[in-house]
Design brief:
Blueprint: H1 13-23, H2 29-35, H3 42-85, E1 109-111, E2 117-119, H4 120-126
Antiparallel strand pairs: 1-2
Helix pairs in contact: 1-3
Length: about 150
């Protein structure tokens, strides 16, 4: 409309550049360059088009940062799961269930993230998310320090 007005009027290049300057961040700079009139002096729109390119690159880099931070958090969570699964506990004939105080000996047992050990019967009764101490690990997540989380 500004670049190719009807009724034989002259193109309004400055108005087109002003419109691009105010609303051009959401437009594709390459498409804008293709639609510009060949008669339009490029010096008028060069600052605006450069600003559009910079905004496009800025948004792309912001997306890369968010993506890589998300990957880092995911890797940290996976590492925490691996560390939890590789924990060792030593049970002997004297070891007691922290809930019912029965000897564990050769019984099946479970270990909660807060290092409490219970026999399998108590584990089934209490559920996998609630420890003997009353801590609910589904609601009150136990955060252990990793390379991304420090406490």
């Amino acid at each position: 409309m500004y670049l190719d007005p009807q009724d034989g009027k002259a193109p309004m290049f400055k108005a087109a550049v002003r419109l691009l300057h105010n609303h051009g961040e959401s437009l594709d700079p390459l498409q804008v360059l293709e639609t510009l009139s060949p008669e339009m002096p490029l010096q008028l729109a060069s600052d605006t088009i450069l600003r559009m390119f910079r905004a496009r690159i800025h948004h792309h880099r912001q997306g890369q940062i968010v993506h890589n931070l998300s990957r880092a958090v995911d890797i940290d969570a996976r590492l925490a799961v691996l560390e939890e699964r590789s924990r060792h506990v030593q049970i002997n004939d004297e070891s007691l269930c922290d809930s019912c105080r029965a000897r564990l000996g050769t019984k099946l047992f479970a270990m909660y993230p807060d290092d409490t050990i219970v026999c399998y019967k108590c584990f089934r009764r209490q559920g996998e998310s609630t420890s003997v101490t009353g801590r609910d690990f589904k609601r009150d997540i136990l955060i252990k320090p990793g390379w991304l989380v420090t406490r």
